[in-house]
Design goal:
By secondary structure, the protein is an alpha/beta fold. It is 27% helix and 24% strand. The two termini are 21 Å apart.
Length: 325
């Protein structure tokens, strides 16, 4: 995408809360966060407070507002990108939701912090500065929403929180798609690969209910029937390449709603390999759908969007198994 040719270009920073917006005795608004970093050269940063929540309370309403604000600002000629500040706990869900629903012609970059502003070595200002630098580069466009943390740039599909307290809290298989550093002549951004195709699924409401079940050694299906009765679809964080104890096979067979098999293992695909009762091959024959490389909570979001769009089970399978996300 060509950079917009204006003398003063703007990057809009949408604040939603989280530790980056916290200090020892209260909250820091997004305007204060911007004061802490100053503006990159030739660019004005604009603050807009969309929400002020710990990300455990992130909701469809906030996601919808974020999507609307991104769409609004993408039509403003001198605005070249958006940064979203966010709590780290569910940041990957917001990033993936926007990845699946937002046609964004310009960079949208999410960041947060692990240490609040009153802590020694608070990481908020550095992450915010990096995110703004990534958002103003034309090379960041067309990649879908990005997550910038500790100088690493991640794709919304693969990024995940990998540590509860370290400042290097984000990772995901196969890893970052780029890197931003403060080099000797200024910020240096490098991407390791080109943009990839995206697919947009944007229902007006997110009204499908999808529940996640977590497999473990000795699981005999406790909770399955209750979840199946309540939900429009299920995601199971299964074992390894997507296997379940034998007791689960008849339950999956009897389910006429989509059952998506993800894995509780932190990296790698779901592959329908094993032919024993409950093995991935038997679950697939019983109608289960493979989540591919998506973790269970991202698979849940995709399934909610597809079911809210009233896609058939056959179409849902195609999206997951052909990687149309
Ligand atoms: N609990 C916080 C949140 O997700 C953690 C953080 O921001 O790092 O909002």
């Amino acid at each position: 995408m060509k950079p917009k040719a204006f003398e003063v270009r703007r990057v809009v920073v949408l604040g939603t809360g989280g530790t980056i917006a916290g200090y020892v005795a209260g909250e820091v608004g997004v305007a204060d966060l911007l004061e802490s970093i100053g503006a990159p050269s030739g660019v004005t940063l604009v603050a807009e407070q969309v929400a002020q929540v710990d990300s455990k309370d992130m909701s469809f309403n906030v996601w919808r507002q974020l999507a609307r604000r991104c769409a609004y600002w993408s039509d403003v000629p001198d605005v070249i990108g958006v940064v979203i500040t966010h709590g780290t706990d569910t940041l990957e869900e917001t990033a993936f939701f926007l990845h699946l629903t937002l046609e964004c012609p310009f960079p949208v970059v999410l960041t947060g912090s692990m240490r609040h502003s009153a802590e020694l070595s608070g990481d908020g200002p550095g992450n915010l500065r990096d995110a703004a630098q990534v958002a103003l580069r034309p090379s960041s466009a067309g990649r879908g929403p990005l997550v910038v943390f500790g100088g690493d740039v991640f794709d919304a599909r693969t990024v995940t929180k990998v540590h509860t307290s370290s400042v290097g809290a984000f990772g995901g298989y196969p890893g970052p798609i780029g890197r931003i550093d403060q080099g000797p002549t200024g910020p240096a951004l490098r991407y390791f690969a080109g943009p990839e195709a995206r697919h947009i699924y944007a229902p007006p409401e997110l009204n499908a209910r999808v529940e996640v079940l977590y497999a473990y050694a000795g699981w005999q299906g406790e909770g399955y029937a209750e979840a199946e009765a309540r939900a429009d679809g299920l995601v199971i964080a299964a074992l390894g390449t997507g296997n379940l104890p034998a007791e689960l096979l008849p339950l999956v067979e009897a389910t006429h709603k989509p059952v998506v098999i993800a894995t509780r293992t932190h990296a790698g695909p779901v592959l329908p390999l094993y032919g024993y009762a409950g093995g991935g091959a038997t679950l697939r024959r019983a109608g289960a759908i493979s989540a591919s490389f998506l973790n269970a909570h991202k698979a849940r979001l995709l399934l909610m969007l597809l079911l809210s769009l009233e896609l058939s089970q056959h179409e849902v399978r195609r999206v997951f198994e052909e990687g149309l996300f």
